[in-house]
Amino acid sequence: MLSVEEALQKILDEVDVLEEETAPILESLGQVLAGDIISDINVPPLDNSAMDGYAVKYRDTIGASEETPKFLDVIDTVMAGSIPGREVVSGTAVRIMTGAPVPEGADSVVQFENTDEAKSKESSSGQPAIRVGILSEAKSGLNIRKAGETISKGATALKKGTVIRAAEIGMMASLGYGKVRVVRRPVVAILSTGDELVEVDKPLPEGKIHDSNAYSIASLVRRYGCVPKMLGIARDNEESLVSKLKQAQGADVLLTTGGVSMGDYDIVKDILDRDGEMVFWKVRVKPGKPLAFGKIKGKEKSIPHLGLPGNSVSCMVSFELFVRPALLKMMGKKNFAKPAVEAILEDDVKNDAGRRIYDRAIIERRNGHYYARLTGPQGSGILSSMSLANGLVVISEDRKTVNKGETVQALMLDWNEEVNI
Questions:
Q1: CB atoms within 10 A of CB 99
Q2: Is 368 helix (H, G, I), strand (E, B) or coil?
């Protein structure tokens, strides 16, 4: 039986980064850049104002205060998107809006709050003043954003391998990129197995259960930026399973749920061992011991296959530990580690299985420390234990008992992999 690390490494060794594709920038969120983004423009293109105010020569403001204003003639107004028509010379000012190009001759922008504009408008029926009083000294460069301050022409704006977030999409948009080359998203085929399963929108006969695994796993696939391809339910016979497996053609990964334990009707691992390659099917972990990994034969290529346990909690925990890192690698990402914190345990935990335990817990931060309390009964079929949890408490296989008050590692389920603790 393999350790968690051994099993994960065998999986990662068998998957590769996928090929590139061109995607609209808005659809590239969470994907990885396949090449550098080089700017062919300055952003911003011109020196512009960071405030609504007056463009002036800063020397004209020396000594200015509320008691002794410096008065300047207002010779023009420039709005964002327009080009200034007048040059600022000594004794003059140009009224300017945020984002507007700074006129020639100006080296500072005094914001409205540091002028007498409000008082001037009150005394002139709201009309723009022809003179403005400056109420504080300015410095050279005050409230001016320089051309190329964000990115200069010819510079590398974003590097290959960058994970695209909202800020990166904004950067690409500012450079005029409508599309971008990225590592494509894996297509993940998801197949549930078992005679006991019923589709969620069908009546539930006695002795049957709704197929929840397909939906929790498909949701995780989407959550990590991949594309789920739901194949439905295969019954516990070879004909049904083989027929459904054919529908996985064209996918990058196949996930099956159920059919990998030691029961008489657990035939998934047997079919895959016959029609593909079985690498392993047991891991020293709880929940999730019956985990199968191998490849199935496709028309053009072999498809990596992970046979997840049928119990709902085992299925989701196995996904987080083993499937998620493989998908991240295929997307071109480098950070596979789940964000983790050190937390003070608020329950006693026993480990009589001799396996690494991942118990579901609620992680809270109080008084500068993280605390972890279990979500209740930890049975592998109690899906509510996952629904209530925001973390997994890790208990090593060599610990038989961990007592309340001890510090443990907790994997944070909902934190992004790019978070550095």
A1: 15
A2: coil
pLDDT in tens, 308-339: 999 999 999 999 999 999 999 999 999 999 99
Domains and CATH numbers, the chain: 4-18+185-330 (3.40.980.10), 21-44+149-183 (3.90.105.10), 48-145 (2.170.190.11), 340-412 (2.40.340.10)
3-state DSSP assignment of residue 285: strand
Residues 76, 93: Cα–Cα separation, whole Å: 8
Q: Where are the alpha helices (DSSP H) in 238-323?
A: 238-246, 268-275, 312-318
Mapped onto helix, strand or coil, the DSSP state of residue 272 is: helix
β-strand pairing of 369-374 with 407-412: unpaired
pLDDT digit string, tens, across residues 339-397: 999 999 999 999 988 899 999 999 999 999 999 999 999 999 999 999 999 999 999 99
Q: What count of other Cβ atoms lies within 10 Å of the Cβ of residue 402?
A: 21
Please give the sequence-ordered ranges of beta strands (E in DSSP) within 35-186, or none if there are none.
37-38, 48-49, 53-56, 70-78, 92-96, 108-111, 131-134, 144-145, 156-158, 179-183
pTM summary value? 0.87
